[in-house]
Amino acid sequence: MDEIKKTKLFYALMCLAGFLIILLPVGIANFYFGYVLKDSPCTLCWGQREAMIFIGVIALFIVRYGMKAKYLAMLLIVTAFGLWQSLAHYGNHAHRDLDQGFGLAVFGIHTYFWAEVVFWAVILLLGIMLFFAPKFSSFDKEMEGKTYRNLSKPVFMVFVISAFVIASNVFQAFVSTGIAPYYGQGDPVRFTLDKKYIIWDDSGYKNHFKTISFLGKRDVKAPDYAFAPATKLGINFDNDPQNSPIAADESLSIKSQQVIEFDKPINTLDFIDGEFVASSKWDVYFMDENFKVNSHFELDPLFSATIDPIISINKMDERRFVLMGSNKTFLKFAKNENANEALQYADFIKGNDKFEGQGKGLGRGRIDTVRAKFHHIASMTNDGKYLYLASVPNNKDKKKFVISKILMSDMTLSAEFTPSANLKDGASLGDLYITSMTYYNNKIYALSKNHNVIAVINPQTQSIEKAVSYPSEIKNARSIFVKDSEIQILSYQEGKNILFNVSGEQL
């Protein structure tokens, strides 16, 4: 086959491809879904349909005006934009349970995912066509010096039919969506020509440019850590219990305090089996009662399931511990003086000769939540059967407070609740900032760095039974735990790790 014949075949295939994308996904969606099944596209659906129309029109431009680099460039740009739209649309529904979705489903797949298939097909087919395309010089030769190509009758009919399909889509868009500044509906009602039921809505675009973020609702800033105080949460921390959302029933006083000689800000501290267990970012230390380090590891946070800075370490059973990151990703690990360094290299930058993260009953995983999905956590405790995680407010949502209950045997969400409480007028539990929790006497003691209050939560009744204030001298409370039947609170302030004994008798 000579180059001119290959060129004409290329144009024929390009014409067919452009026609099919307008006739099938666009045409079927318009004529059958729209006029017969009364389906009205949502805002994102219209965007994806428009991108398909643009792709088809550009293909027909190539057929009419010849192969030009700018047309190929526009094909890729529009396809990329369509992929982004369909991915954004699919992302809104990808987490849903079986058979839950939005709009019509074709062969069990909803239309917003079919758009993803169409755009990837465009890239694949364009790549195949260009791979077998004739020499680029033959495109100029085939044009014979003219500025446009002559159209045969079949190709002319393709142009006419395509124009009709596009015009029908314009009509449907006008009826169901309206003209600027009307924007379309996120949840569109059935298509109708009865003006009594037609909705032209302009509320959607008004919120788009208030803040510009590619992360959308996931643009949540990092929580507050001892080693990295939060500066972008829009939260003003104070140490006055009078400002707490729940009135304190009791107050604590400081019995004693000591400075822990340590060269890093301690973010978490607990007393487990006769040892202090501390963490700072991704470093974990096991220390004796005089805070001398017995063993230490540095976590590799990027292996497999990425772990954000550590917010708590709990004992799971006789052998295992679990550490949790603020992104609800965990590592179940164990001590072993004879650990296989090569095997444990995956989890630990340092300490892979003394600790295990690989092996039976060990390893990483993620906690999937529902109510706390867009919130970090800063605390964790357990009752031997369940882990309890507490969300913290952020720059997007300063009202929500959720306790997530995780079954330790399979590390799967069992329940979520916002504890009932006797709140002050206009207050919310989101005014608290829980940096640590401990399970004691069948209750959860949740330490709030903000307003210097401890919320005593009954997990059985899912209620805050009382609130206990602690002294304002404790400026940056990071951890709460019980040692020798007395309550200990760790604070990192004035560049020092200070452990306060406030006694547990009042609690």
UniProtKB/TrEMBL annotation:
<protein>
    <submittedName>
        <fullName>Disulfide bond formation protein B</fullName>
    </submittedName>
</protein>
<feature type="transmembrane region" description="Helical">
    <location>
        <begin position="72"/>
        <end position="91"/>
    </location>
</feature>
<dbReference type="InterPro" id="IPR023380">
    <property type="entry name" value="DsbB-like_sf"/>
</dbReference>
<keyword id="KW-0812">Transmembrane</keyword>
<feature type="transmembrane region" description="Helical">
    <location>
        <begin position="154"/>
        <end position="175"/>
    </location>
</feature>
<dbReference type="GO" id="GO:0016020">
    <property type="term" value="C:membrane"/>
</dbReference>
<feature type="transmembrane region" description="Helical">
    <location>
        <begin position="9"/>
        <end position="34"/>
    </location>
</feature>
<dbReference type="Pfam" id="PF02600">
    <property type="entry name" value="DsbB"/>
</dbReference>
<dbReference type="GO" id="GO:0006457">
    <property type="term" value="P:protein folding"/>
</dbReference>
<dbReference type="GO" id="GO:0015035">
    <property type="term" value="F:protein-disulfide reductase activity"/>
</dbReference>
<dbReference type="InterPro" id="IPR003752">
    <property type="entry name" value="DiS_bond_form_DsbB/BdbC"/>
</dbReference>
<keyword id="KW-0472">Membrane</keyword>
<feature type="transmembrane region" description="Helical">
    <location>
        <begin position="111"/>
        <end position="133"/>
    </location>
</feature>
<feature type="transmembrane region" description="Helical">
    <location>
        <begin position="46"/>
        <end position="65"/>
    </location>
</feature>
<keyword id="KW-1133">Transmembrane helix</keyword>
